[in-house]
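[INFO] parsing input record for Short subunit dehydrogenase
[DEBUG] input buffer:
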Amino acid sequence: MNNAGFGMHVPLTSGRQDELDLGFDVMVRAVLVLSGAAARAMRDRGYGRIINVSSTAGLLAMGAYSAIKAWVTSFSEGLAVELKGTGVTVTAVLPGWVRTEFHERAAITTSSIPNSLWLDAEQLVSACLRDVDKGRVISIPTVRYKMLVGLLRHAPKSAVRGVSGAISSSRKKPVEA
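[DEBUG] output buffer:
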């Protein structure tokens, strides 16, 4: 399971390449290297399960974090295709807002997020493991998130960008330049 990550508020145009590189190293390069190593070993033994934690944020346009999580989902799908028939499955889980310390550590204001959108970690894990057992490549934890993801996937990109901007502005705390 690849689950390392952190929130990123660094504007893409900030010039703070070191912070962007850190996000890339932790949430892209590590997933690439560790999934590849695990996949080779699992393929050789004929069985295994790889879970990569992505995010519904990867369906939005909220800077580097969204781009990174979109990559994790796409990478997981590509790896699943490559490993089809080997006994190894790959699942990308796309959680929404989960009650953990993530948001506090990422300095994300959560007061504008409706209570109905919050998931408990146990609920997310149970849903993901059910999807892994079924061999699903994409795991979306609840009916309400499946509906929201469906809307995001079929909405005009201009609307998705508008929603992304509204979400970003409502939850970000000021970041020093």
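[INFO] The helical segments are 17-45, 63-83, 102-105, 121-133, 143-154, 157-171.
[INFO] shutting down worker
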